[in-house]
Amino acid sequence: MLKMGELVLKGLNRARFERSLLDNTARRLRPLGPFALEARQSTVMVAPQRDDADMDAAFAACAEVFGVAALTRAAEAAKEMDAVTRTALAYLDAPLRRVRSFKVEARRADKRFPLTSPEIARAVGGALHSAHPGLTVNVEAPELLVMVEIRDTAAYIHAGARPGAGGLPLGVGGKAVCLLSGGIDSPVAVYMTARRGVMPVLVHFYSYPYTSPEARDKVITLARLLAERCGASPALCLVPFTAVQEAIRRHCPEAYGTLILRRAMMAAAERVARRAGAAGLVTGESLGQVASQTLESLGVTGAGLTLPVLRPLIGLDKEEIVVKARRIGTYDVSVLPFEDCCTVFTPRHPKTKPRLPDVLAAEAAFPREELVEAALAQAEWRRPADEEKGPA
Ligand code: ATP
Ligand code: MG
Predict the structure, then answer these.
(1) What does pTM read for this prediction?
(2) pLDDT tens digits for 237-282?
(3) Measuring from each residue's beta carbon to the nearest atom of ligand 1, which residues come in under 6 Å?
(4) Which fold has domain 2-163?
(5) Homologous superfamily assigned to 175-389
(6) Strand, helix or coil at 137?
């Protein structure tokens, strides 16, 4: 039983959200065999269609689906008290042996069911207590909280829901272009964007020979990991940025190099977004983390763009980002020591409080539009999640 989160609140969009949630869950379960899915009363019911279904794997897969606020495994019983009690006794035998106290709660969505919720709870609780007389009933803080739900077509018995991935179903929020470096931060930003229902379109800039083929492969690996975590197969656009970087070095004062490069990346990403039908840009920037991420620098980086720039990590400390990166499984790849093009030609004394007019003057001789267009003309589009994994 997958409990839908916020999406139950979304009025007219609700049907569309439910459809996405069902599709996304079905996609995750497909490799695990046949499951029947149905959305009913703000819950997605996932039922195995074969007795030997790997329910641990299925549960783990469902726990990753965005839009699932909480989930629990449940036993189904016919809607009559005998069957409910028998099923509860069998299904909860093992968990009840592991605790000292319990409590039964009942919820009767089907008001035609002859017993009221307190009556159902009392009947099932009594039967469980008789079978496990060593347990105490604790209504304040039970170690095991048993739920009996009388729904429209059947009764369900479960104990112990766990939190799901939360967020909104992937795809309901349209698309955003996410600037993906090989670092720790941007993969987390991609995950956070996807978790809020927005499909990421990944863009990476690289600068052969200043950056190595391994640095680019690392980003492809990150894209694959993110695809797995998000349960989707986002497109990855690889853009060669060597000529852009060399032109910046040639035409612009060194102290503004990184800022001008970042402005060029944003301009390129915005063009990719227009072509991909994406409504925003996403970066892994966090306030004050480095010289190019002060408030003034972020202002300069985003100036002149028309699409909104989302920075989901803006208020997080590095350690908090690291915790998230470990949890989503990108950290170990992110810390592999390959250079990013942002660290090529890094100024010795970067500006931390740049003023836009000074930056515009500094980049005046740099033919950005022309070079960005040329870079995009050579961009390579891939779908790493659908490609064969090469040798490690
Ligand atoms: P990260 O850990 O994500 O690399 P960072 O703290 O190292 O971030 P920067 O290198 O300044 O910060 O980059 C800031 C943001 O710019 C990144 O989070 C990412 O969104 C984007 N970015 C940086 N380098 C690239 C690149 N080579 N390709 C695409 N996007 C990039
Ligand atoms: Mg970086």
Answers:
(1) 0.91
(2) 999 999 999 999 999 999 999 999 999 999 999 999 999 999 999 9
(3) 179-181, 183-186, 203-205, 265, 283-285, 289-290, 292, 340-342
(4) VC0802-like (3.30.2130)
(5) HUPs (3.40.50.620)
(6) strand
